[in-house]
Fold Arsenical resistance protein ArsH.
Amino acid sequence: MTESDLPALHPEYLEQVDLARLEPQPRVDHPPRILLLYGSLRSRSFSRLLVLEAERILKVLGAETRVFDPTGLPVADSVPATHPKVQELRELSIWSEGQVWCSPERHGNMTAVFKNQIDWLPLTEGSIRPTQGRTLAVMQVSGGSQSFNSVNGLRVLGRWMRMFTIPNQSSVPMAYTQFGDDDRMKPSPLYDRMVDVMEELMKFTWLLRDRADYLVDRYSERNSEHRLPEKL
C-alpha cells in the first residue's frame, strides 16, 4: 500500500508498535497508588462503607490508598477551580495510578454527588491529565434488587475520562442487609466479588502503569499540532 492509497493520512505521525516500550525498563516499584471515590453524603453511606471495605483489601494487597470525602465539594462550575476541595480532588487524581468508583443507584443511575466529583476533573489541565491512562474499578450499591445501571454508567464515564476500566465489577443489592451494626460488610458471595474486583484492579495497575503513557499516545494528537486549518 502506498501513500496515494491513504490520501488523508499523515504517515510521518503514524508510528509502528514499539514492542520495547510495551516492556518498559526499569519498572517503578513503589506501591500502586489507588484513589477511591464514593457517591453519598449520608452519615451512614453504604457506598462509603463498600469503598472502605475495598480499601482494606487494597492495603492487604500492597496498595497505597486515599479516600476522597465529597462533603463540601461545590457543584461543578459554581466556584473557581481554586476552591480547596476542588484542588484536593484534582491533586489526588493526579497522584493516583488507579481508581475505584462506587456510586449508589438513584433513579436508575449514579448519583449527582458522584457525578459532580468527575465533573470537576478536566480531561487536561495544562500538560497534565488527571485521569488518562489510569486503571479503574467500578462498584455500586442499591437499596433494592440486583441492578447494574450505575456500574454501566460509570463504565461510560470511565471511558470518556480515558481510563482503563477493568472487566470485573461489583454490584451490591439491598445494601442495608449486607453491613452489620459495626459498619463492616458481612461474609457473602457479594463480599467475595468485591475482593475479586480489587485483586483484578491491582493486577491491571501493576501491568499498565509503566505502559500507560505509551498506550494512550495517539496519532490524532501527534498530528493535530501540525494539521492545517480545514477549509470551511
